[in-house]
Amino acid sequence: MLKSFSLRARQATMAAVATLLAMGATTPARAADSSFTPAQRAEIVTIMREALKTDPTILSEAITALQNKASAQKAASALDVVRRNPAQFGQSTTDVVLGNPHGTLSVVEFYDPRCPYCRKVLADLDTLAASEPQLRLVEKVIPVLGPNSVLDSQAIMAAGLQNAYLPFQKALMTDTGAPGPDRIRRVAKQAGLDADRLLRDMKSPAVTSALSHNVALARSIDLDGTPTFIIGEQEIIPGAVSLEDLKASLAKLKQHTH
What is the pTM of this model? Predict the structure, then answer.
């Protein structure tokens, strides 16, 4: 029995394990179309079994490598969608723009107002916009966390019809009251809005259409969490992200743009 593997042999074994895992995830028809013969498949299985007896971590590392490859392919596919439809993502007339409306550094954020990570990043986005005069950051609200997210998203869009998107957004997303129409009315009044009009506008065709459009865009890139940032046409950052990481991504975008 083999007692140790060289680095090259270990990497080859991980590749074989990943290959088997990938083949196992395919349909029988696709598996039948594989370039491996039955004898080759049997040899790969033998190698894998011997390797796993010597080093069981090979399996977990092969799975991780396969997941990373799938994530990279998903990101590449999403960026292709963005590149084919730049105006749909970056040139919004219904969403709010942070920073310079005419900036050359385009960033898009998909966020849910009930998402704790989206709430946490609010202040960071203000800092980011203040630090880069060419940043044009489009914020696209999408309700993905249930009925209360739908209400809050409708309310934020409706506040935009009173030219108060940002102040109302910040007030609502930092408010700790129980979610619901009464909270929305209270926050609207505190922000100086016409609360009755806002509650009516929440159900308006303009708000419904804008939210539906944002949700459709999110689905087109297979978005699976908020916040999600699209950095130009170069990078997609899903999930929680630090201010330092956002600055680093923006610096890379700036280098590419110039």
Answer: 0.72
